[in-house]
Amino acid sequence: MSVDREKCPHDGTQAHGQGETARGWRVTALNIDIATVRGFLHAEEGAALHRHAQVAARRGPCLEIGSWCGKSAVYIGAACKAVGGILFTVDHHRGSEENQPGWEYFDETVWDEAAGAIDTLPFLRDTLRRAGLEETVIPIVGRSPVVAKHWAAPLALLFIDGGHTMEHALADWRGWARHLMPGGLLAIHDVFPDPADGGRPPFEIYRRALASDLFEEVEAVESLRILRRL
Ligand SMILES: C[S@@+](CC[C@H](N)C(=O)[O-])C[C@H]1O[C@@H](n2cnc3c(N)ncnc32)[C@H](O)[C@@H]1O
CATH says 41-229 is which class? Predict the structure, then answer.
C-alpha cells in the first residue's frame, strides 16, 4: 500500500509519508502504488473520498464523472470493495478541454495516433486490473449528460470531476444531482472560492448546491468539497 507522493498538477502541494497523508489519515486498502497512476487528485482528497465512500457504499452504488486513468476510481473503488459496494465511473475518455494538444494538461503519452485523439480507456483498464478492482469499478464510456439522462438507480455517493467548462459542470450538476438518494453524498472537485486559484465552474455548482437548500456541507479538503443531500 502507498499513498500519492506525486506532485499534484492542480495545487503544487506534495503528500507525505508511506501510508499516511499530511493530515495523518491512513489509506490502508489500496492494492496499487497510487503514484504510478496518472491523474489529478491530491492525496488528502483521495483519502477523504476513500473514507466517505467506505460509509456511503454500504447504502447504495457510487458513481464518478471523470475517470481519466483511474486515480480517484482507485481511492473510491478500494473503499467500495472493502464493504461489498460498487462504483460506476463515467468518461468519454477523449479528455477535457485542458487536456487537448497545446493546452496546459496535455499528456502525449495518452494520445492515440490511430484515433487522432486522446484515449485514456486503456490506462483506466490497466489501473483497475493492477488494483484488483475489475469486479468493483465499472467503466461507462460515454458523454456524461447522455448517461445521466438514462440513469435510474439512486446513488449513495456522486463525485463530479468531469469537464470543467461552465457548460459541462452545469450539465453534470443538473443531470446527476437528482439521482442522489436522501442522505447521499455529493463530492465536487476543483472548487476554488478564489478565482486566482482556478476556474469558476466547479465552484459555481458547489454554490448552487448550497443555495438550493437541498445540501449541507460535510467537509472541505484542498479543492474537494463534500456535501450531503438533505
Ligand atoms: C480532471 S479529469 C478526471 C480526473 C480523475 N478523476 C482523476 O482522479 O485523475 C476529467 C475527465 O473528465 C472527462 N470528461 C470531460 N467532459 C466529459 C463529459 N462531458 N462526459 C464524460 N467525460 C467527460 C475527461 O475525458 C477527463 O478524463
Answer: alpha beta
